[in-house]
Write a sequence for this structure.
């Protein structure tokens, strides 16, 4: 019997948007980044991803999910319309959705041993940005709406 990939649950404050992040990497090995752009600083978000990971998102009702694009408009930041929590960002490349999660939205995140590194992507060329996402972000992403 094959070993099951460890998974970690998370979601917004009100529970309207939930997700499961599955990865073979232990939390201590996760690349945890605090982006220093003006948007992410205001959010207080920290992100993680992994090319071999999976993200399964469940939205209770389509009206609960909202997205926001800014700057290069190459990523969508998803938040819950009810409680306002920003959960993850996605980027579509060659008809494939890639994602990073805001680890502050993981259940019991304070119990995980995580090392956060500040990153600055200002001035990064769009082509380099997209290639970095293709290489490092979660490449297996599904979003399911319970009630459309």
């Amino acid at each position: 019997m094959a070993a099951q990939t460890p998974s970690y649950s998370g979601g917004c404050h009100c529970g309207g948007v939930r997700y499961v992040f599955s990865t073979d990497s232990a939390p201590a090995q996760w690349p945890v980044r605090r982006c220093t752009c003006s948007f992410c600083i205001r959010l207080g978000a920290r992100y993680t991803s992994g090319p071999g990971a999976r993200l399964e998102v469940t939205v209770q009702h389509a009206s609960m999910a909202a997205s926001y694009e800014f700057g290069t408009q190459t990523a969508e930041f998803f938040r819950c319309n009810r409680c306002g929590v920003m959960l993850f960002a996605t980027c579509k490349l060659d008809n494939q959705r890639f994602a990073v999660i805001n680890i502050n939205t993981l259940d019991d995140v304070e119990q995980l041993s995580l090392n956060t590194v500040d990153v600055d992507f200002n001035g990064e060329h769009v082509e380099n940005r997209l290639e970095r996402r293709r290489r490092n972000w979660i490449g297996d992403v599904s979003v399911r709406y319970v009630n459309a």
Observations:
- Residues 126-136 form the longest helix (11 residues).
- The mean pLDDT is 93.
- Residues 7-147 form a domain with the Metal Binding Protein, Guanine Nucleotide Exchange Factor; Chain A fold (CATH 2.170.150.70).
- Residues 5 and 91 are 24 Å apart (CA to CA).
